[in-house]
Amino acid sequence: MGHFEMQKLKVLITVELVDYIPHSILSKTIIKKTTGDVSAVSFDSGEILPEKKSPFDIFIQVIEGKAEIFIDGKSKKLNSGEAIIIPAHLSSSIKANVRFKMISTTIKSGYEGVPLGP
C-alpha cells in the first residue's frame, strides 16, 4: 500500500496511477486528508478484498476493466467508466473476476454527530 500523496498541479492519467501486480491488490494514495482520502487501486484477476464495514461513504469508480462489488450481500457489476457509492455502515467486499483498476474516494466529513461504534 502506498502512503504518499501525489504531486499537486500535475496532470494525472488515472489508468497509469497504479500498475497491475500478479496475484495482488495494489493501492496508491492520491490524496490523504483528515476529511477523506482518494486512492488508485488495481486488482489482478481472482483477487478479493475481504468484507468490511466503513463508518464513512466510499465512492468507487472503475477506470479500467470490470469489478464485482458486494454491498450488504448484493452483487453489483461495474464496467469501466461506471461508479457506485457504498453507504457508510454497510458491509462490502470487492472481487476481481477479471483484472481491473478503480479510484476509491472516502468522505469522512458530515458524520460529526453520528456515533462510529457498532
From TrEMBL:
This is Cupin domain-containing protein. SUPFAM superfamilies: RmlC-like cupins. Gene3D superfamilies: Jelly Rolls. It comes from Negadavirga shengliensis.
